[in-house]
Design goal:
Layout: H1 11-29, H2 35-41, H3 50-62, H4 67-74, H5 76-95, H6 100-127, H7 132-163, H8 166-186, H9 203-227, H10 233-255, H11 273-294, H12 297-307, H13 319-335, E1 340-344, E2 350-354
Antiparallel strand pairs: 1-2
InterPro entries: MFS, MFS_dom, MFS_trans_sf
Domain Major facilitator superfamily (MFS) profile: 13-371
Organism: Rothia nasimurium
Length: 371
């Protein structure tokens, strides 16, 4: 089997890992622009579906500390294949969902699978590589870890507009199943670490990670409430508790978790110069790609026209127009929840009608079909 130059890793393993990480990166951000379409399908509001994405993030972070323990106990290749299949099953479940609860279950399965795939895949790649070979692998992993999440919203919007939002999940599910079959044929199962069977899970660290992750997911909401005029003492209390929990997690990881072979959070990894340089490189690359994408000429000019109170000059099919329509709709609904009903047409136009405030919204645009 052909191997990657300079590393004792088969080239097929690297391709399989990059494909799996690309699917994982797309899955994390591809749903964001199509939440209004999904809400219209299930006859709920987009705000009601925000918990679906929170569940994905919390599930992904909650199982992250278990990845090392599972890889050592069952074998990294076996765990990689199992959770890659789980990712495909979760995507398929979301694609055929006929209720919000079915969609939520699919996203939770996707979050659990993606939370294990990334660290186990990295461990498989780094295990047989040393020195400069790890730097080469780090550069390769920048592709799925940075570019895929950036392209997710763009491709998700295009696919939802032309093929419907269900096509996003079904196509990703088919792709993930293809990668799973390739992994079954190309990756040989590894013998599990016999010493790992007697190791105990870092339960205290796992609970702290779970609570801190849930708190971080709710942190933007707490900050928004704290900065508003209607803020309450409970909001400031929640921010204080979140800060204390984060501090307790860092202290526990730095002092006590060093004695465990598989800690929930290994803060000591930052003492490695290679780890610090790789982390900084990934952060800078992601920030640069984000700035380039959102600060391009077309996006900036559209935003400037909207900021100058000239919304009619904004292209009807641009993302700014869709964001403006959705923002105005939610703003008006909060003011008059029992009077108005709103729809966002494919052309990006914001419509207002006097009708019962329950979806699905009627087709108010004479030249287009709603959603």
């Amino acid at each position: 089997m052909k191997q990657h130059q300079g590393a004792n890793i088969p080239l097929t393993h690297i391709i399989i890992y990059l494909c799996a990480m690309s699917i994982n990166g797309f899955d994390g951000t591809v749903v964001v622009p199509v939440l209004p379409l999904m809400a219209a399908t299930f006859k709920v509001t987009p705000a009601d579906l925000s918990g679906v994405e929170w569940a994905f993030l919390i599930a992904s972070a909650a199982v992250l500390p278990l990845a090392g323990w599972l890889g050592a106990r069952l074998g990294a290749a076996r765990v990689f294949r199992i959770f890659l299949a789980g990712l495909g099953i979760g995507l398929l479940l979301s694609g055929i969902a006929n209720s919000v609860w079915m969609l939520l279950a699919g996203r939770i399965i996707q979050g659990v699978s993606s939370g294990v795939l990334v660290p186990v895949g990295l461990a498989m790649m780094y295990r047989n590589a040393t020195g400069a070979d790890r730097l080469r692998i780090s550069r390769l992993t920048l592709i799925p870890l940075t570019i895929a999440p950036m392209l997710g919203p763009v491709l998700g919007g295009i696919m939802a507009q032309h093929m419907g939002w269900r096509s996003i999940f079904t196509l990703l599910a088919a792709f993930s199943m293809g990668v799973f079959l390739a992994a079954c044929f190309c990756m040989k199962p590894e013998a599990p670490d016999q010493t790992a069977t007697a190791l105990k899970i870092d339960r205290v660290g796992l609970v702290l990670v779970l609570i801190s992750t849930a708190g971080l997911a709710l942190l933007p909401v707490a900050i928004a409430n704290a900065t508003s005029r209607a803020s309450s003492p409970l909001t400031y209390l929640a921010l204080t508790v979140l800060t204390l929990l984060a501090g307790a997690l860092m202290f526990y990881s730095w002092k006590r978790a060093q004695k465990r072979p598989y800690p929930a959070l290994a803060v000591g990894a930052f003492t490695s110069r290679m780890f610090r340089s790789a982390t900084v490189s990934v952060g800078i690359s992601f920030a640069a790609l984000t700035g380039f994408f959102f600060c391009s000429g077309s996006s900036r000019s559209a935003w400037d026209r909207y900021a100058d109170n000239r919304p009619d000059d904004v292209p009807r099919n641009s993302g700014i127009a869709r964001w403006r329509a959705a923002h105005d709709s939610l703003k008006e609904v909060s003011r008059h929840p029992q009077t108005y009903d709103f729809g966002l047409c494919r052309c990006g136009t914001h419509h207002r009608n006097y009708c019962p405030p329950t979806p699905p919204w009627p087709g108010v645009c004479p030249s287009h079909v709603l959603f």
